[in-house]
Design brief:
With 616 residues, the chain is an alpha+beta fold. The protein has four domains: 5-212, Histidine kinase-like ATPase, C-terminal domain (Heat Shock Protein 90); 220-346, Ribosomal Protein S5, domain 2, CATH 3.30.230; 387-471, 3-Layer(aba) Sandwich (Rossmann fold), CATH 3.40.50.11260; 487-540 and 548-615, Heat shock protein 90, C-terminal domain (Four Helix Bundle (Hemerythrin (Met), subunit A)). It has 19 helices and 23 strands. The protein is elongated and about 125 Å long. The structure holds adenosine-5'-diphosphate (ADP) and magnesium ion. Magnesium ion binds at residues 34, 37-38, 121, 126-127.
Length: 616
């Protein structure tokens, strides 16, 4: 005669069950995750008992989690060979609250407009998620303790549960869910398989579904680095990255403070965004003790690290967060900051240790780093260290860091100089470059259209201001050349040119930085540069023509074209005017800013005619 005992649920459990049973949750499937997590916990605890010398019933039985589905009966059963539960433990664990979890969870549900059960497991009440899908739950359990016997626990959710002795049970726990009519899908093997693959792929004990082994990839992020083989890492990358190539970089680290984190991050070998695949999404999944909390977790990394793939596992995920608000929690921000700083440090180290790999990385991902400089104040400095540019003192194709540039700066040089240019040849022929070549100051050659914004945001590096060459206030720092105009004559000429060109030019000044070029244009707007104007022009192609921009003109008082102009301007003002106009247009051509060359060509042809007329 079996003696069935009938028990009441504790009031709070009853309240919780009310909500769980009667609310319509979209992610009901998480009950699979919760019951498997409990089964895995039970196996883990058994292992601990065994290793600490406890007598264990059926100690030769290996840890195993088995799931069977029965679509005829409309049921699903989860069985484990873990430590099982005694009569007392069944009462305590599945009927009362041993911890404050239920209260916290109820409070959370009450506060939310759209309650999210997804995190039920983190409140220590995961077991009850079974009642979202089951009309009846039967638990058969036999404790590991040799002197204990088996028990059956059954409940239909409301009211309470029954306990009955059960003979001949093996060690462990077997939970059968008789599914509600609207949850019969969970009796389908392929539905359940998909859920297990999603949430429980890394559970550290074998999971079998209807006899088929499911979780074959290990949660290697939780293992000691030194024990993991290269092939295991690559296999894992194939799994999380859905990529058959090898990753470019891999960072595996763990931290205890300020947060407990285990992370395994990969940089894919290719940047999928430039491959024309559109904007990519971060593929870093967030786990809590090897169980998936959020796939492609938003907010875990800044946007500009969206090329990363991998896993972050943190035990510190608090009890009071829900999926929707996860992004905003200060914990998420803390995680983000720690992870990002660590990853940037890693890149910096790689750039030293694995220079060739870093170069490849930079070629693929520089745009992301630059996006970071422009959008992310917190990590700007660390990002600045990672930038690389071609330089006037290095061979074409070789790149330098800003740190190395600063090391090479002569003591009289106070600023870092950059020249935005379409290519190396144009840079070396640029009038803006002349003064730097003369003074032997290194100039970084920037070829990427984004670089100007990047440099502007970076502003300075190691305390040294970063200046665009065309904005640099730099002298040749040498005595006046033979044949150069006197200061007064040069000033007078500048005044005359301004008068002659009128609105076509802003200010006209005597330059102290030109060697070979007769003149340069410099943007009158302190914050504008020629390349910026070019970019704006390119973006606004279809818009109505804007008011013409004026540039300042700087003239080289030692250039023969300038000295001769001064000599003839009194005698032949017609010719002088044409030459002055041509000098301005030539300077604009050099800066890439001449919109319409037709007027300039007509003038140039007239000038050539005059030259030839003189010769014949
Ligand atoms: P949590 O797992 O966070 O403690 P749950 O509501 O999921 O919360 O489970 C409550 C308790 O029930 C567990 O702590 C555990 O003691 C017990 N339990 C649940 N499932 C099992 C199982 N398969 N084997 C042994 N004990 C279990
Ligand atoms: Mg649990």
């Amino acid at each position: 005669m079996s003696k069935t005992e009938t028990h009441q649920f504790q009031a709070e459990i009853q309240q919780l069950l009310n909500i769980v049973i009667h609310s319509l949750y979209t992610d009901k499937e998480i009950f699979v995750r919760e019951l498997i997590s409990n089964a895995a916990d039970a196996c883990e605890k058994l292992r601990f008992k065994q290793s600490s010398g406890n007598g264990v019933f059926q100690s030769e039985t290996a840890p195993l989690i088995t799931i069977t589905t029965d679509d005829q009966a409309g049921s699903i059963t989860i069985t484990d060979t873990g430590l099982g539960m005694t009569h007392g433990e069944l009462v305590e664990n599945l009927g009362t609250i041993a911890h404050s979890g239920t209260k916290a969870f109820l409070k959370q549900l009450a506060e939310e407009k759209k309650p999210d059960v997804g995190l039920i497991g983190q409140f220590g009440v995961g077991f009850y998620s079974a009642f979202m899908v089951a009309k009846k739950v039967t638990v058969l359990s036999r404790s590991f303790a040799p002197e204990e016997s088996g028990w059956q626990w059954t409940s239909e959710g409301m009211g309470g549960y029954d306990l009955t002795p059960a003979a001949d049970l093996p060690r462990g726990t077997k939970i059968t869910l008789e599914l509600k009519d609207d949850a019969k899908d969970f009796a389908q093997a392929n539905t359940v398989e998909r859920i297990i693959q999603r949430y429980s792929s890394f559970v550290p004990f074998p999971i079998e579904l209807n006899g088929k082994r499911l979780n074959t990839v290990q949660a290697i992020w939780a293992r000691n680095k030194n024990e993991i083989k290269e092939e295991e890492y690559n296999e894992f990358y194939t799994f999380v990255g859905h990529d058959h190539e090898k990753p470019l970089f891999r960072l595996h680290f763990s931290a205890d403070a300020p947060l407990a984190i285990q992370a395994l991050l990969f940089v894919p070998p290719r940047n999928f965004e430039t491959l024309g695949m559109g904007r990519i999404d971060s593929e870093v999944n967030l786990y809590c003790r090897k169980v998936l909390i959020q796939a492609k977790a938003k907010g875990l990394f800044p946007e500009w690290l969206r090329f990363l793939k991998g896993v972050v596992d943190s035990e510190d995920l608090p009890l009071n967060i829900s999926r929707e608000t996860m992004q905003d929690t200060s914990l998420m921000q803390k995680l983000n900051k720690v992870l990002t700083s660590r990853f940037l440090k890693f890149l910096d180290e790689q750039s030293e240790k694995e220079a060739a790999a870093y170069e490849k990385f930079y070629a693929e991902y520089q745009r992301f780093l630059k996006e970071g400089v422009v959008t992310d104040f917190t990590h700007k400095e660390a990002l600045g260290k990672l930038l690389r540019f071609e330089s006037s003192t290095l061979d074409q194709g070789k790149l330098t860091s800003l740190a190395d540039y600063v090391k090479r700066m002569p003591s009289e040089q106070k600023e870092i100089y950059c020249l935005l240019t379409p290519n190396r040849a144009a840079a070396e022929a640029s009038p803006y470059y002349e003064v730097f070549r003369e003074r032997k100051f290194e100039v970084l050659f920037l070829y990427d259209a984004w670089d100007e914004f990047v440099i502007e945001h970076l502003h300075a590096f190691e305390g040294k201001p970063i200046k665009l060459a065309e904005k640099a206030e730099l002298d040749l720092n040498e005595p006046k050349k033979d044949g150069a105009l006197s200061d007064e004559a040069a000033k007078a000429l500048a005044g005359w040119i301004k008068q002659t060109l009128g609105d076509k030019v802003g200010e006209v000044r005597v330059s102290k930085r030109l060697v070979e070029s007769p003149a340069v244009v410099v943007d009158a707007d302190k914050f504008m540069t020629a390349s910026m104007r070019r970019m704006m022009k390119a973006m606004k192609q279809d818009a109505a023509p804007e008011a013409p921009v004026t540039q300042d003109l700087e003239i080289n008082p030692a250039h023969p074209l300038v000295t001769r102009l001064e000599a003839i301007r009194q005698k032949d003002s017609g010719l002088a005017t044409s030459v002055a106009e041509q000098i301005l247009d030539n300077a604009r051509v050099a800066a890439g800013l001449l919109d319409d060359p037709r007027a300039m060509l007509t003038r140039l042809n007239h000038l050539l005619e005059r030259v030839l007329a003189k010769e014949s």
